[in-house]
Design a protein that fits this description.
Helices cover 39% and strands 19% of the residues. It is of the alpha/beta class and 496 residues long. Strands 13-14-15-12-11-17-18 form a 7-stranded mixed sheet, with helices on both faces. It has a 6-stranded mixed sheet with strand order 8-7-6-9-10-20, sandwiched between helices.
């Protein structure tokens, strides 16, 4: 049943917030006694106190994870047991989907319409996907000389650390946790300090689902403290991360300085969207472009924020795109009628706004470009379309992580490909054409982990998601994600 604005506000008012870490299956206070004040960015209201964890909590969580892993209660329990526990985990998440949705909406400004209908149920479904997949993976018996047999098995890595971004707190945690747990690992999660509550609830539900204590631990706190401690920890075997390229580079250094732990890094993006004149439906392309650049307030690593349009249809596309942007007008995240919500904080909105002001000075704002105050908060920004700036302008080069897109004309296919690839990132790209030959030709030349043809930012449970270049390495989603959290072991038996 769809809730009204008033019903969502009432549910939010009744919500309980607990910012303590979950270690070894139980809540505990941070040893320092310090907390971080957490506000709702859409109102400025203080909603909770997140415990400011440090090295002591990280050491305790890693020790709990190591003990739980070595006990074999999860890692050696068998795929069938893990399947049943993860299916129950998914059921519990689904049963409390509205609670998860409210946590993420109140923490980072996401529209509850989306967090309740997409993020929470989608996360439950992904646990089901990996619960079923793990029992269907196969080991190998390769050819060996007579008198010998070799078994090649995929083995869990042990203790996995997961560092989660704040733009999709529940979903991104799930993208890492579901395959890591399915494969038999124990996990320590560092949730974003901006949005910790959904991960903390996950840890509680894991115990309720019958997942052994210590297999899923959550330690909130600052990335510079908790994240760094996990990356440098000698007893963490693997680290999975989603976040900025700058932090991803730091994590690579920390892994090298410590125990050479495995890494899977999904880092920044500055994705392109190419609109060719032979596109079959220019209006649809414009509507999808608006979705690809403004959905989730533009706080999406794969957001198609650089749009290149063939000159013959440039003016028509720009008009249709500006019209489509109107569907993403900002409003109260708890109002199902809002197009987008607030940015994650007023400080982040200040950064995005500074970029818009620079673009206003150096080019032209053709839509948006305003910063309304809603509920007393200035964390809201209208979807903004920029044109007429040089290709080396920050709107083209920097990951803004807000509802800002730049539109630029091109004349030839080669020029379009060069513009699209002219970035240090390689996470995603889109292209629109009615020519099958062009679709194949251009998609093969685009350097991106996912190329969407006649749609934007396409992804699904069955297809891997990740990037090239400075967008990182390793893949989320699909059965290929299991490769992040396992490795091959050869057992050679000589019997003749």
């Amino acid at each position: 049943m769809t809730r009204t604005h008033a019903e969502w506000k009432a549910a939010a008012a009744a919500l309980d917030f607990d910012g303590r870490p979950v270690i070894g299956g139980a809540r505990r206070a941070a040893a320092s006694g310090r907390t971080i004040e957490k506000t709702n960015p859409a109102t400025g209201e203080v909603i909770s106190q997140i415990h400011d964890c440090g090295q002591e909590e990280v050491d305790a969580a890693v020790a709990a994870a190591r003990a739980a892993y070595e006990s074999g209660s999860w890692s050696r329990a068998g795929a069938g047991f893990r399947r049943e526990r993860l299916l129950e985990f998914a059921r519990l998440i689904e049963a409390r989907a509205d609670e998860f949705a409210l946590y993420d909406s109140l923490d980072m400004g996401k529209p509850v319409r989306e967090s309740s209908t997409i993020d929470a149920p989608g996360s439950a479904a992904l646990y089901r996907f990996y619960a079923e997949a793990i029992e269907k993976t196969e080991d190998l018996i390769p050819v060996t000389p007579p008198g010998s047999t070799a078994l090649v098995t995929r083995e869990a890595l042990g203790v996995v650390a997961v560092i989660v971004a704040w733009n999709y707190p529940l979903e991104i945690a799930t993208w890492k946790l579901a395959p890591a747990l399915a494969a038999g690992n124990a996990v320590v999660v560092k949730p974003p300090v901006e949005a910790s509550h959904s991960a903390l609830l996950l840890a509680e539900l894991a115990i309720e689902a019958g997942i052994p204590a210590g297999i899923l631990n959550v330690v909130p706190g600052r990335g510079s403290v908790v994240g760094k401690a996990l990356a440098l920890h000698e007893d963490v075997d693997m680290l999975a991360f989603t976040g900025s390229t700058e932090v991803a580079k730091q994590l690579q250094q920390y892994a090298g300085q410590s125990n050479m732990k495995r890494l899977a890094l999904e880092a920044g993006g500055k994705s392109s969207n190419l609109i060719f004149a032979d596109c079959d439906d220019l209006r649809l392309a414009a509507e999808k472009a608006a979705f690809g650049s403004f959905y989730n307030q533009g706080e999406v690593c794969s957001a198609n924020s650089r749009i290149f349009v063939e000159r013959a249809v440039y003016e028509d596309f720009l008009r249709l795109y500006a019209e489509a942007a109107q569907a993403y007008a900002p409003g109260d995240p708890l109002d199902p009628a809002s197009g987008i919500g607030s940015l994650v904080s007023e400080a982040h909105a200040d950064s995005v706004w500074a970029t818009i002001e620079n673009a206003r000075r150096d080019g032209r704002i053709v839509a948006g470009g305003a910063r309304p105050e809603i509920n007393g908060s200035r964390a809201f920004i209208e979807p903004t379309i920029v044109t007429g700036v040089p290709i080396d302008h920050e709107v083209h080069t920097r990951e803004i992580f807000g509802p800002v897109a730049v539109v630029t004309p091109f004349d030839t296919e080669d020029e379009a490909v060069a513009l699209a690839n002219g970035t240090p990132y390689g996470l995603a790209a889109s292209l629109w054409t009615g020519s099958l030959a062009r679709a194949h030709r251009v998609s093969s030349r685009l350097v991106a982990g996912t190329v969407s043809v006649n749609t934007v930012d396409a992804l699904g449970f069955t297809t891997p998601f990740g990037g090239f270049k400075q967008s990182g390495f390793g893949r989320d989603l699909s059965v290929h994600a299991l490769e992040n959290y396992t490795d091959y072991k050869t057992t050679w038996m000589q019997w003749g």
